[in-house]
Amino acid sequence: MTKMNRQTVVTEALDLLDDVGLEMVSTRRLAKRLGVEQPSLYYHFRTKKDLLDAMAAAAMAPHANARLPSAEDDWRAWFLENSRSFRRTLLMRRDGARLHAGSTPTGDLDRIRRKMAFLVSSGVPEREAQVAMLAAGRYTVGCVLEEQAETDSPDADDLPDDVPVLDHETAFEAGLALILSGLEQHTAASGQASAAPSP
Q1: What CATH number has the domain bearing residue 32?
Q2: Per-residue pLDDT for 197 more than 80?
Q3: What is the CATH number of the domain that holds 152?
Q4: pLDDT score, position 102
Q5: Which of 7, 49, 123, 159 fits as disulfide partner to 163, beta carbons 3.0 to 4.6 Å?
Q6: Is the residue at 146 inside a domain?
Q7: Which range marks the domain in which residue 40 is found?
Q8: 27 and 83 together in one domain
């Protein structure tokens, strides 16, 4: 029998996720995998939702532990890499986007504040920075949801002539560039308004 603690349960649960997919993850299956009785899991997690939240937090560790931006970083390059890191992390686990989308955020709020402070200190208006970070995050989850749900690559012959065939990464990068372009425009407009002389 596996010596069980909270970390062991989460690790085994993530391995189970990779093996069977989110739909098939259950406390019964997990208990069998751990070699324990199902009720013993509730010592560590009161509900399945608590377990899924812990799984989502653990699955996000590669992104959550990524280097924070520093003052000399270009905010545009950092904005792109932050979203790419998020995407890579979601793709590391089977159904990673679905697991994350259904979780209650438990991330380090201090890291989020530091990211926001970096954007604002780089000249991005606070409101636009908040909206852009939220939009990029939701966009990334949506892209990965589609990618992980797809069983076959689209056949160019099945699509209308005016619809481009893009692989998932190319499509993701194109959309992300549009989000960044919009943020750059808002930032430039805000800078021009601030620099305008008072009447």
Answers
A1: 1.10.10.60
A2: no
A3: 1.10.357.10
A4: 81
A5: 159
A6: yes
A7: 1-46
A8: no
Q: What is the mean pLDDT of residues 11-17?
A: 97
d(CA 155, CA 153): 6
Helix boundaries (H) for 41-167: 48-59, 61-64, 75-91, 96-101, 109-121, 126-149
Supply the pTM of this predicted model. Answer: 0.87
Q: Helix 48-59 crosses helix 27-34 at what angle (to 10 degrees)?
A: 70
Compute the average pLDDT of residues 117-124: 96
15 and 80 co-located in one domain: no
Classify residue 160 by its DSSP letter: -
> Given this model, what pLDDT does residue 192 score?
62
* Residue 175 belongs to some domain of the structure: yes
Do 146 and 105 belong to one domain? yes
Encoding tokens for residue 27?
A: 């406390």
d(CA 141, CA 128): 20
- Distance CA(163)–CA(110), nearest Å, equals 43
Residues 146, 141: Cα–Cα separation, whole Å: 9
